[in-house]
Amino acid sequence: MQFISWNVNGLRSIYKKGFLNWFKETMPDVLCIQETKAHEEQLPEEIRKVSGYHAYFSYPERKGYSGVALYTKAGPNSIENSFYDNTIDDEGRIIISCFDKFTLMNIYFPNGKMSQDRLDYKLEFYKAFLDECKLRMERGEELVVCGDVNTAHKETDIARPKQNEKVSGFLPVEREWLDRFIGGGLVDTFRMHTKEGGHYSWWDYKTRARERNIGWRIDYFFVSKGIAKNTKASYMLSDVMGSDHCPIALEMEI
Fold first, then answer.
1. Following DSSP, what letter does each residue of 76-88 receive, concatenated?
2. Catalytic: 157?
3. Which of 86, 108, 199, 227 is deepest in the core (most CB within 10 A)?
4. How far apart are the C-alpha atoms of 13 and 35, rounded to whole Å?
5. Which of 225, 249, 227, 219 is nearest to 237 (CA)?
6. How far apart are CA 47 and CA 22, in angstroms?
7. For residue range 135-187, what is the model confidence (pLDDT) as tens digits?
8. What distance in Å separates the CA atoms of residue 74 and residue 127, rounded to the nearest whole number?
C-alpha cells in the first residue's frame, strides 16, 4: 500500500494549481490532507467526490481554518473525528479511520508560534494524542499515524538548528514530546530508511527558503512497532509544488 500525507495550505487554493491532475496521476491507496481551510460544502464537487475513492472531511465551525481530509480506495470500518479526550479538539484536526489490519490517524497538530496559549494547547494536544495511541495499542490495534506534527525532532530535521532553538517548532519541550511518542511505541518511518539531514517537508514562503532548501522536517509517518517491519519505504515528494509543504509518502505491505 502507498500512503501519502500532505499539508496543502488550503484545499481550494491547491485545487486551482492542478491538485486533481497530480492526484489522478499518483493514485495512492490512501491520501491524507491537512489544513484544508474549507468546509466540505465549500469545495468543488470533483474534490468532494473523486472517482475510485471514499472521501471524508473534518473541519471546525470557523471557516477558512484548519481542517483535514481523507481519501481512501478501501472503505474503512469506521470513522472518528476526535480522541477519547473529545474536549481537546474543536478545530477539525482529526480523522481516525479503522481498517481490518490497522488504524489510520490523520492529524493536523497545532502550531505553537502565535502565543503562549497556543503553545500550551499544542502540548496538551500532544499529550491527548499519545494517550490515544497508548489506549489503542493496548487494545491490540496497529497504528499508522500521519500529518503535520509542527515540530522538527532532531538537529538533522532542520536546516538551521542553532538559530531556531527558541522558536516554537524546535523548542526543547516540543522535541521532548516527540521523544515520548517514540518511547511510547511509535516508529518514525522516515528515519528507519534515511539517517542524514537535508531532507525537509516545509519551507518558509516569505524568505523563498525552498529555493535554497532551508527547511524543516515537520511532517511525519509514524507506525506502531508491531507493523514497523512491514515498512518498505518512507520519503519526501519534494518535487511536488503547490504548498509550503511537500507531500510525504509511506509504502507498506499490509
1. PSEEESS-SSTTS
2. no
3. 108
4. 11
5. 249
6. 13
7. 999 999 999 999 999 999 999 999 999 999 999 999 999 999 999 999 999 99
8. 30
CATH number (3.60.10.10, 3.30.2350.10, 3.40.630.30, 3.90.420.10) of 2-252 reads 3.60.10.10
SS3 per residue for 97-159: EECCCCEEEEEECCCCCCCHHHHHHHHHHHHHHHHHHHHHHHCCCCEEEEEECCCCCCHHHEC
Q: Cell 509544488 appears where? A: 241
- The position carrying cell 503553545 is 119
Tell me which residue has cell 532553538: 165
Residues in the chain: 254
Pairing of strands 202-203, 103-108: unpaired
* Grid cell listed for 71: 481519501
Q: Strand, coil or helix: what is 22?
A: helix
* Pairwise CA distance, residues 167 & 118, whole Å: 13
Q: What is the 3-state secondary structure (H, E, C) of 172-198?
A: HHHHHHHHHHHHCCEEEHHHHHCCCCC
User: Which pTM was predicted?
Assistant: 0.97
Which amino acid type is present at position 196? E
**Segments making up each domain of the chain, as ranges:** 2-252
Give the three cell numbers for residue 222.
509514524
User: What whole-number percentage of the chain has pLDDT above 70?
Assistant: 100
Within 10 A of 6 (CB to CB), how many other CB atoms are there? 30
